[in-house]
Structure prediction request, 225 residues.
Amino acid sequence: KNEVEQSPQNLTAQEGEFITINCSYSVGISALHWLQQHPGGGIVSLFMLSSGKKKHGRLIATINIQEKHSSLHITASHPRDSAVYICAVRWGADGLTFGKGTHLIIQP
Amino acid sequence: NAGVTQTPKFQVLKTGQSMTLQCAQDMNHNSMYWYRQDPGMGLRLIYYSASEGTTDKGEVPNGYNVSRLNKREFSLRLESAAPSQTSVYFCASSESVRGLAGGDTQYFGPGTRLTVL
Prediction:
């Protein structure tokens, strides 16, 4: 089984700050997903990564396969970015393990 | 398009009662999934349906049954609810049979918050 650790568990920041959320895993993977869960509960897929870096608007996701580590960055953070960010890793034939999530609050 | 819809949004049950959580998708997806989310834990897969007419157990299937009624609808049934089944339940769908595990995007419903007293 793949152990997925996210850090920090909770993060409160001021509007405009650069945010970094980390995800580490224990077993080699084929890909990693970042998901966003809104305060109302809805879950949205943000990125799928197997190598390198992806960017969408103010969100940037990077992955280092050798170090078994991924980061999600938010530039110029805004209160509407407040959400739970979840990392999920694909491994083995059909393995899928979710992290516990990082609760992010951006204060105006 | 409504995407993935779930009913009800909230439910309170007494131990031993039964209920069915409903899920429907309008994206013509082949595969559908039921997850539960508990405080301090990641999402965990209960059951999934790769295609109409098939269902398979996920990581935590005990105490649940599912029915893939047609391509659109996938229901989750608790035959005799227990306090350990207090959780938020999410339904999801994807085009491919393996969803996130296969590298495909999964689309999630808004969730059902279930409390078992």
Notes: Chain B touches chain A through 23 residues (CB under 8 Å).
